[in-house]
């Protein structure tokens, strides 16, 4: 029987961040993961503080973005790998009114930390349609999630902290002060299984609302020096290669990419990008989103040793570092979780005794 402090189920973004957090605090972990690429591998890994059609500041941006900029850089040093890219995002305006509005906000302390420049019309006309100018954002970029996840996996293997196997919830034995799973015993178990949580009776009562996203990989005739974002993102990843995404569909949740998804992306891309391209690849992933679009973190209502970290959704790269730290503070130090992410917010609604 191997005894550890924390058994972590799943080595996607949430599980990887949590394993690093626990070990850096001096706790022992064992991560159980079957090695099959999940939604974290399919995601583009974008982080952007100004989002949506109305271009609003994303939830808790002032806390999350300073934290993530430091956190991913520190993890590169720990893992001896490069996966964090602090790349500006350019967002074209669609009207003169929008240009005037954002020119006024440039000096607003609420937005100023995230605005590098409000550009004049056709500043970046070589690459995109920006007839009304646009906004060049900072504290933005992307995390190469496949590289990050592979680096964490290698690091965990080097410490004998990874078990490569499927998780079978029916094999879990729960006591008030420990969990036992096969030959593993832990003080706590944390489920970081993404959409697979909907198939686990311990967590299936939660209001998950999975969202399918499709992404294209394109070959372009010239390199792009920045990320472009309006309707879709255009993310340069390698020489003459970009990722374009993403769609949001709640109904059809297969992992098969669709002609509908491709056409939706191409229609929006052609309204944004001037650069000629050809399609190299097309894939889909299922995001572990939730009813209220907030993460679900905390302790199971009936089993003290069983915890969850899930629901990071489309903004997992920006949400993950801060809320994994908050989970660790709750687990190890007994500190409170923010009510917006605490699992207890769903107790009454789902008639679970908290």
Fold and architecture overview:
The protein has helices at 13-24, 39-42, 61-79, 96-105, 145-158, 259-270, 316-333, and strands at 2-9, 29-33, 46-47, 50-51, 56-57, 84-85, 89-92, 115-119, 134-137, 141-143, 162-164, 172-174, 179-181, 184-191, 211-220, 227-230, 232-238, 241-245, 277-287, 296-299, 306-310. Helix 1 crosses helix 5 (145-158). By secondary structure, it is α+β, with helices and mostly antiparallel strands. It has three domains: 2-43 and 146-207 and 291-346, FAD/NAD(P)-binding domain; 89-137, no CATH class; 211-287, D-Amino Acid Oxidase, Chain A, domain 2. The chain is globular and about 65 Å long. The protein has seven helices and 21 strands. Strands 1, 2, 11, 12, 13, 14, 20 and 21 form an eight-stranded mixed beta sheet that branches. It has an eight-stranded mixed beta sheet with strand order 8-9-7-16-17-18-15-19, with helices on both faces. It has a three-stranded antiparallel beta sheet with strand order 3-10-6, covered by helices on one side.
């Amino acid at each position: 029987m191997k005894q550890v402090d924390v058994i972590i189920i799943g080595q996607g973004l949430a599980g990887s961040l949590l394993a690093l957090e626990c070990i850096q605090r001096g706790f022992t972990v064992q991560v159980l993961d079957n090695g099959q690429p999940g939604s974290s591998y399919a995601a583009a890994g974008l982080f952007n503080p100004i989002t949506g059609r109305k271009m609003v500041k994303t939830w808790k941006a002032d806390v999350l973005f300073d934290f993530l900029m430091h956190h991913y850089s520190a993890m590169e040093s720990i893992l001896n790998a490069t996966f964090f890219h602090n790349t500006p995002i350019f967002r074209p305006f669609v009207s003169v009114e929008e240009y005037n509005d954002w020119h006024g906000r440039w000096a607003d302390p609420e937005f100023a930390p995230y605005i590098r420049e409000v550009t004049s019309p056709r500043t970046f006309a070589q690459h995109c349609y920006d007839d009304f100018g646009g906004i060049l954002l900072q504290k933005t970029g992307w995390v190469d999630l496949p590289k990050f996840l592979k680096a964490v996996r290698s690091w965990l293997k080097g410490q004998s902290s990874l078990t490569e196997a499927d998780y079978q919830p029916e094999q879990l034995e729960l006591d008030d002060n420990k969990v036992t799973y096969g030959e593993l015993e832990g003080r706590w178990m944390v489920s970081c299984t993404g959409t697979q949580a909907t198939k686990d009776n311990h967590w299936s009562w939660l209001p998950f609302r999975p969202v399918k996203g499709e992404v294209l990989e394109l070959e372009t005739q010239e390199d792009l020096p920045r990320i472009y974002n309006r309707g879709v993102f255009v993310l340069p990843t390698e020489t003459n290669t970009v990722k374009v995404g993403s769609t949001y569909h709640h109904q059809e949740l297969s992992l098969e990419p669709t002609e509908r998804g491709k056409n939706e992306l191409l229609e929006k891309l052609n309204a944004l990008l001037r650069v000629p391209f050809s399609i190299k690849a097309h894939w889909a992933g299922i995001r572990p989103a939730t009813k209220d679009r907030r993460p679900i973190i905390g302790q199971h209502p009936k089993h003290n040793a069983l915890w969850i970290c899930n629901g990071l959704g489309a903004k997992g790269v920006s949400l993950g570092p801060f809320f994994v730290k908050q989970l660790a503070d709750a687990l190890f130090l007994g500190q409170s979780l923010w009510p917006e992410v605490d699992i207890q917010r769903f107790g009454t609604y789902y008639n679970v005794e908290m």
